[in-house]
């Protein structure tokens, strides 16, 4: 089971399925995604055209990850343009995300193979259990193709873990320190936890471990100073700047604070649902299956990961993605526990019950993951709204006798936060009769001026002009949809997003299956998803989220 298997293939297919199911992105992904767009379309020299020159963000972020992705995608882009032409560049966005997803997928497969190699003599099935437990989880699989900085860093962490599971702690810690300095500082903290525990548990010597940490950090420092200072146009160390802004100055609390226990009692439930990995952790610590002769590899992995989560808990602002790096490591320990439980199936009643859970809960986890993936596809109304408007503009472009030669589309903040990227804009060459300008102006002073709105022809906003907006400040309304003398705004599209789930359709479907089980068998055999898709659609509650308006002046449509 050391080499590529059908579970690995299914894993890549699952990542690809989520990518196609939800092709758009959220605001947290925007910096890296826009940076890749700029590198692919403007090259590496004309930096004044880059998106970050206009929208810098609260703190500078590293260009290292986007640079690596662009280097991989750039040779493929001409082939994509030739054989899969698109009026927008959403195909290119899918390719970019596909590369990210493949990188994350291959890094986890490498981790599984390293686990198989290190435990081949003592436990040949532990890597299979790792695949079953890890590949059936939702968060890592769904977000594997997304350009969140954490998931650009995750392949490097998994690469480091692949060394660590073989007992090679110094290379692992070196890679984590490098990644922490260049991409995400918390990865460096994770590396420090591994360094500390590997020394205390006799896995590595203090001198060699410190040497690896220093080497990784220095190479990382040189890399980030070289790459990021170039793209930002001044001496820049993004992770240090972000640390000062978010932690030292405490600005991260502006995005919300949570209690110390949130990672352990809130986010762990979400990351490991159902909790098969936590259930197997204690059993996984009882025996180390590695054959590196050090005897404490599994314990070091577990304690280091829990210590990392513990230290991260001191930061008041918490998000599950800040501790995502520990999930594969803890899953390794859980896989060891599952393997031990199943191998001792007949030894006791508790082991039989745990063995049953080891087989059943991953199936539940996969089913839950698939449902959550489908539900999550309704969380990107901005991307859908822009795609719908682009279709409208393409049809308008084919209309004879056009009076208007230039069109400006204004997209407000909620729209830009939920799926709108530069990849979604129409390419100039896809239009023959007019030019489309896409506007993301956030300046409230300018948006309160009528002259600004005179230039807008279409608006994508979260303001419903037909709703009762009397309780909203007029200034707020005017920044979202301001009246223009002699013109009217007409609502031409409404885009919905996820609002909740109702269980009644599932209950009804279960009753139908109970009455006619043959129908379910026929659907499975014929791969007919019509019935289950109807149940899923009926179970999802949607709400109006974004509205598209067209400005019509002087009664001319």
TrEMBL record:
<feature type="transmembrane region" description="Helical">
    <location>
        <begin position="206"/>
        <end position="227"/>
    </location>
</feature>
<keyword id="KW-0812">Transmembrane</keyword>
<feature type="transmembrane region" description="Helical">
    <location>
        <begin position="267"/>
        <end position="286"/>
    </location>
</feature>
<comment type="function">
    <text>Mannosyltransferase that operates in the biosynthetic pathway of dolichol-linked oligosaccharides, the glycan precursors employed in protein asparagine (N)-glycosylation. The assembly of dolichol-linked oligosaccharides begins on the cytosolic side of the endoplasmic reticulum membrane and finishes in its lumen. The sequential addition of sugars to dolichol pyrophosphate produces dolichol-linked oligosaccharides containing fourteen sugars, including two GlcNAcs, nine mannoses and three glucoses.</text>
</comment>
<comment type="similarity">
    <text>Belongs to the glycosyltransferase 22 family.</text>
</comment>
<dbReference type="GO" id="GO:0006488">
    <property type="term" value="P:dolichol-linked oligosaccharide biosynthetic process"/>
</dbReference>
<keyword id="KW-0472">Membrane</keyword>
<dbReference type="Pfam" id="PF03901">
    <property type="entry name" value="Glyco_transf_22"/>
</dbReference>
<protein>
    <recommendedName>
        <fullName>Mannosyltransferase</fullName>
        <ecNumber>2.4.1.-</ecNumber>
    </recommendedName>
</protein>
<feature type="transmembrane region" description="Helical">
    <location>
        <begin position="6"/>
        <end position="24"/>
    </location>
</feature>
<comment type="pathway">
    <text>Protein modification; protein glycosylation.</text>
</comment>
<feature type="transmembrane region" description="Helical">
    <location>
        <begin position="298"/>
        <end position="316"/>
    </location>
</feature>
<keyword id="KW-1133">Transmembrane helix</keyword>
<dbReference type="GO" id="GO:0052917">
    <property type="term" value="F:dol-P-Man:Man(7)GlcNAc(2)-PP-Dol alpha-1,6-mannosyltransferase activity"/>
</dbReference>
<keyword id="KW-0256">Endoplasmic reticulum</keyword>
<keyword id="KW-0808">Transferase</keyword>
<dbReference type="InterPro" id="IPR005599">
    <property type="entry name" value="GPI_mannosylTrfase"/>
</dbReference>
<dbReference type="GO" id="GO:0005789">
    <property type="term" value="C:endoplasmic reticulum membrane"/>
</dbReference>
<feature type="transmembrane region" description="Helical">
    <location>
        <begin position="354"/>
        <end position="375"/>
    </location>
</feature>
<feature type="transmembrane region" description="Helical">
    <location>
        <begin position="322"/>
        <end position="342"/>
    </location>
</feature>
<keyword id="KW-0328">Glycosyltransferase</keyword>
